[in-house]
Amino acid sequence: MPSLILHVDETLENIFEISAVKAIEKSIIDIIQEELEAEKNNCQIIWVKSKIICSNYKIFGELKFRDKETRNIDKRDKCLKRIGKILQNKFNAFIRLRAFSIQDASITALDIVN
């Protein structure tokens, strides 16, 4: 499940190149796998072009994942810091990241594949 939604201010869009985004995604997924013990196929990163008007934080991200005993505060903190460092190095912008753990009992999920 780990899902990272990144809202990126449209002023940063000229920095986006598909090859660079793929490399960033791979690095972030590697971090999520390592820090949160997630399965690669369960990780998803969604990039959303946004208009961030008043905030100085030009990238805002929300990481959601299933609650597990091994995903303690230290692991979550380290995960966010490592992801933030990658984004800051690439985009040279202020980054705001949040992490939310969700208990299995409150999740209903559906995947449809062809």
Layout of secondary structure:
Blueprint: E1 3-9, H1 18-36, E2 44-50, E3 57-66, H2 73-91, E4 94-102
Parallel strand pairs: 1-2, 3-4
Antiparallel strand pairs: 1-3
Work out the radius of gyration. Answer: 14 Å
CATH topology: Macrophage Migration Inhibitory Factor
Helix content: 25-40%
> What order do the SSEs take from the amino end to the carboxyl end, as H and E?
EHEEHE
Largest sheet: 4 strands, mixed
CATH superfamily: Macrophage Migration Inhibitory Factor
* Average pLDDT: 91
How would you portray this structure in words?
This protein has 114 residues and is α/β, with parallel strands linked by helices. The protein has one domain: Macrophage Migration Inhibitory Factor (2-Layer Sandwich). The chain is 33% helix and 29% strand. The protein has a 4-stranded mixed β-sheet with strand order 2-1-3-4, with helices on one face. Strand 1, helix 1 and strand 2 form a beta-alpha-beta unit. Helix 1 runs antiparallel to helix 2. It is globular and about 40 Å long.
